[in-house]
Every structure is written in structure tokens, then in C-alpha cells.
Amino acid sequence: MPSPADQDACELLDADHLAVKHLFVEYARLAMLPSAPGADARHAIASKICDELTVHAQIEEEIFYPALQRAVPDASDILEEARDEHRQAKDMIARLRGMEEADAAMDALVAELNWAIEHHVKEERDELFPKARSAQGLNLEEVARQLRQRQEALQAEMAA
Q1: Residue ranges of the Hemerythrin-like domain (predicted)?
Q2: At 82, which CATH number?
Q3: Among 75, 79, 112, 124, which is least packed by CB within 10 angstroms?
């Protein structure tokens, strides 16, 4: 995979997808442990998943989707579906953020969110990214620069 500075927009977004997938796997691993000490760690990972997905969805909605819409006007239906999937994920994220402890209910909701994100990622990889890569006049390196810049700003806001 290219270094972060050399990634185009699709590669940058896909690197985010992979990072969140690793968090979901780590959460599932801890959820399978028979002892309670994994509860605090699961809660922390669930919080990290929520943070990562919130930033990721925001940069897609603010920068990537509008750029793709301008370059590929016939992408409206798939972009609306992607936005709808974001709305569903945001609802699950809000429910997760409202949970005070990692328990069976949180485990089930994290698993549901994982499934929804896997579905969304597959559609982006199979439909959106190919459209973006073949679009005339869409500079994916410039979009990646904008995505990185906004992502860093949002992460700094969350850390403050």
C-alpha cells in the first residue's frame, strides 16, 4: 500500500476501512474471552470504532461524495444509497455511545454495525471506487489531500 502521502482518495478511504476492520476483529476477539476483564477493553474499542467511523463518514460526505457527484452525475443513486447507509451507521453509533458498559447488548450492536460497515465497504469498493477511478476530471490525489486535511482537523477536534 502506498504511503499516506502518496495515496489517492480511494486508497486513503480503503486504508480507513481496513483500520476499522482490525478494530472490529479485536473487539470480537475480546468478546469471546470467558472472563469479565475484557469488558473495559471492549468498551474502549467500541468507542474507538465509533470515533473512526464518525470521522470517516464525515470526510466522505463533505469531500469525496460531492467530488464524485460533480465528476459522475449518473452516480446519484449509489451515492444516495451510501448516504443512507451512513445514516443507519450513525444511528447505531449513537446507540453504542449511549451504552455505559460492554455487555451482550453491546456485543450484538457492534456485530450489527460490523456487518453494516462490511456491506457498505463492499459497495464502495465494487461500485464507487471504480467510478471515481474512471471519472474524467476527478483528481483523486487532490481529493486525498483534502480528505487527509479534514480528517486530521476532525481528529484534533475529537482529541481536544
Answers
A1: 11-132
A2: 1.20.120
A3: 112
